[in-house]
Structure prediction request, 376 residues.
Amino acid sequence: MEKILILNGSPRATRSNSKRYAKLFSRHCPQETDYREIRKNNHAELRAGMEHHADLLLVFPLYADALPVGLLNFLKFLETTPPDHRPVVSVLVNCGFLEPQQCEVVVRMLRLFCQRNGYPFGSVLMVGGGEAILDSPFRFLVNRKIKHFAKSIAARQYGTWQTTMPIGKRLFVLASTQYWLQYGKRFGISKRQMQTPVIEGPDSE
Amino acid sequence: MKLILSDRPLNLELPENGEIRHVDLSTLQIANCVGCFGCWTKTPGRCVIRDDAVRVYPLIAESDTVVYVSRIKYGGYDTIMKRMLERAIPIQQAFIRIHRGETHHLQRAVTPKHATIIAYGAIEQEERSIFERLVARNGYNMNFIDHRILYVAESEVEKNVKDLIETWKKS
Ligand SMILES: Cc1cc2nc3c(=O)[nH]c(=O)nc-3n(C[C@H](O)[C@H](O)[C@H](O)COP(=O)(O)O)c2cc1C
Prediction:
């Protein structure tokens, strides 16, 4: 069985949620996986790695409703200097908001990239509430979906899945407020300070 | 204030009263967002990366009209514009609200705005269709009152921006 190459396109790759999703994927995948992080200066090395894998999994966060710019730049690199062998591209995208459907646009972008550049398109998993779901009681839902998703890639029976926290929007707003308050607290920042309307305060350079 | 953000140099004659500003992003030093959320949780409203982007997002926040001039790639903004849009998240709060039926961030002092996107390099129908969804989605997060997209040939970009400025001057 051929190995699957996982590329993490999160700008904070080493400490990212995407890394945690990638780990879960590796754990549940019947096939072996190789994991790499996309950086500014390793594009050629990653492309060389793609030659030896039949499947590529892009794991990344939604950024401004689209691809994080580092991942966009990697795709542009592949377009100008393509690999000889083009793996099947699957996508595991997570977004901070509750609705996984907010990721649909970025999935279309990747389909377009694949279509233009001759890559077969594989499976998709869109995770809503992706910033916090792994530390919530709903982690099991992600686990379950990643299992289906990973199996589909290994079996070459590609499909699309989505998951999120099974709570109403209002509860999500409350829970996310608590989440961010805790985040601020770690740096000694209060709710009031986090709510400041001021952009680039008077002491900015 | 009206703000023109472009990913390329434009030769524009702007009124001296500062009512219309042009920022050519291609001449600025702007690093990629590193996703640290410092601008929400450590120094709210301020990006921890102190490069040229910190002079641009306050202008975005302040403007009631924005014009984004950008090349399109895979149905999204190409690198220069996309990098800036990512670096503009200090103008939002970490906190989430329900907005138009979905969860979105609360804004800081961000003036609601009319947006015009002058898009070049998007030829295929599918690419335009993706871009239209993207801009509509961005509108929810970027406080757009309304938006319109003008697809233009690369050679026509400057002319289109000039025409727009003329219509503003007349109105
Ligand atoms: C610059 C920036 C832009 C973001 N844009 C969006 C967005 O448009 N929609 C969304 O749901 N989440 C957005 N997020 C949130 C991330 O997608 C979310 O926090 C994700 O879990 C980060 O994953 P990572 O740790 O793998 O990078 C954004 C985060 C950053 C830093």
